[in-house]
TrEMBL record:
Keywords: Glycosyltransferase, Transferase. This is Phosphoribosyltransferase. It comes from Parvibium lacunae. GO terms for molecular function: glycosyltransferase activity. Pfam families: Pribosyltran (PF00156). Signal peptide: none annotated. Coiled coil: none annotated. Residues 9-157 form the Phosphoribosyltransferase domain. The lineage of its organism: Bacteria, Pseudomonadati, Pseudomonadota, Betaproteobacteria, Burkholderiales.
Amino acid sequence: MSDKRFVNWEEYYQLCEALACQIAASDWRFNHIVGIARGGLRAADVLSRVFKIPLAILVTSSYREDAGTAQGELQIATSLSMVAETLRGPVLLVDDLVDSGITLQATVPELLKRYPDITTCRTAVLWQKAQSVFAPDYCVQRLPDNPWIVQPFEHYDQLNIAQLQSDANLS
């Protein structure tokens, strides 16, 4: 892994807005947004609000060790959390980034298998690392290397509730 790259909230939301503009410029229309939790939740939420498209959540997990910095075996939840009865038509699958690419590489065919009424599934991310084996349809920054991107919400990976209460003098 290369150096760390720190991203603040302002830059994060600018990237989300740039991703929205890139998707809009493609003139592709979609019926649902599926956000991959946890990393893709915020970007998917922004896109859902901007495009006024329903948001579904799919939980996956592969980064569990070392405060979420070491990749292990990919787990994909067996169900989606959504208001719609099912997914159908064109679907946009959103994650924060493609690191190895394994998550999106496995998730796209899994969604198509579970929801046969999906006609197309495109992918959108903020960052694509050089080592990725998967090329997303939409990406704001294609990186020439593989830095660990420290996103603003990762601050909470190092905290627990006792520390928060102590720091805030709350109990």
